[in-house]
Amino acid sequence: MAERATIIDYGSGNLRSVEKALQRAAAERGLAVTVTVTDEPSAVAGADRIVLPGVGAFAACAEALAAIPGMISALEHVVLVEKRPFLGICVGMQLMAEKGLEFGETPGLGWVPGHVRRLAPEDPSLRVPHTGWNTVRARSPHPALAALDHHPKDFYFVHSYHFVAENDAHVLGVADYGERIAAIVGRDNMIGVQFHPEKSQSAGLALLGDFLEWRP
Q1: 3-class secondary structure for the chain?
Q2: pTM summary value
């Protein structure tokens, strides 16, 4: 029976691009995975894997997710109780934090201790937002990041804010942009990436394939 990988539609994110990238990653690995996009909490409850994309401001994304009746409760049950694999992308990754500091303070999901603050590169020539390709290095081997084991790769970033983890052990991968950026965070059955794997060509497809094969 095919697994169900579900992308959350809450009005924010490159949904079609993420859907197509996941489908291609599954096909390249010969995986029986059905990829769907949904805004229905009942569909989330039946998913085997969850992907939460996100583009824009932290506060707007948090409010949009909370505005779908029952969605956060469904996510919390599937991810925190059922322990099914979860992937957050860009602002979807930032929402895993306790709070975001963009346009004031906004509560996040609180799944990974930490907060999201504006980039502050020491080099004045580095502009914010951070846009373009940057090298990501895994800090230690992780089954969902096999593509990065001992092989740093370039991924595509577009962001002005970044995740500051309270526990450095939750920072699984890093990049440099005038300061260290938590490019990948995670714990237990959850990972989040600041970059866009769906826009990162072969490296992004490899990472998505690792996620689809991950058995936490």
Answers
A1: CCEEEEEECCCCCCHHHHHHHHHHHHHHCCCCEEEEEECCHHHHHCCCEEEECCCCCHHHHHHHHHCCCCHHHHHHHHHHHCCCCEEEECHHHHCCCCEECCCCCEECCCCCCEEEEECCCCCCCCCCCEEEEEEEEECCCCHHHHHHCCCCEEEEEEECEEEEECCHHHEEEEEECCCEEEEEEEECCEEEECCCHHHCHHHHHHHHHHHHHCCC
A2: 0.96
> Which listed residue (19, 61, 90, 170) is catalytic?
90
Per the annotation, the verdict on 61 as an active-site residue is no
What tens digit of pLDDT does each residue of 102-148 get? 888 999 999 999 999 999 888 888 899 999 999 999 988 888 998 88
Is 198 in the active site? yes
Residue type at position 147: A
Is the domain 3-213 a CATH 3.40.50.300 member? no
Of 131, 132, 91, the C-alpha closest to 109 is 91
